[in-house]
Write a structure and sequence with these properties.
2 strands, two-stranded antiparallel ribbon, 155 residues, mainly alpha
Length: 155
Amino acid sequence: MGFPSDQPLNSSSGEPQRRSGRYRYHGGKPADPNEGVHPEMVDSDPSQPPATGIPGSPDELIAMQARSERPEKPDRELSAKVQEVLDLIEQLDTSAAEDQQIALTLVRHLEGFHDEVVEEMKDDEQAKHSQIVAWSIDADRLMRSRILLESVDLE
């Protein structure tokens, strides 16, 4: 177990209390430490059951992967512009290398957009830190996706 200094005393009862490392009071009143925090940055509560999208065993994971739909990300309806672009791509007779170039261009465009938003938010004093973190995480994911896509050898 930890040292007595790891658990602060509750001033009202004199008993140790658990802490998560984040300040939980504001102006003497309890505050939600996860308010305004991106869902990926929220402290997990071990007493709560895991989300339904998280498998509890390897067999559940295999069964989840075998399903074609992903419950955590519902399909969005395609806009007319997106459908037109997808129709044009299907009509073109492109090679795998050309498809890779198209995909890289789209990922670079989206990555650049995320980078610009992060830069704008860094200079905005009213921007929430949690939102900057969320956009930065997504920009990093896009960068890693681009790097992986660039590393695919199609020749």
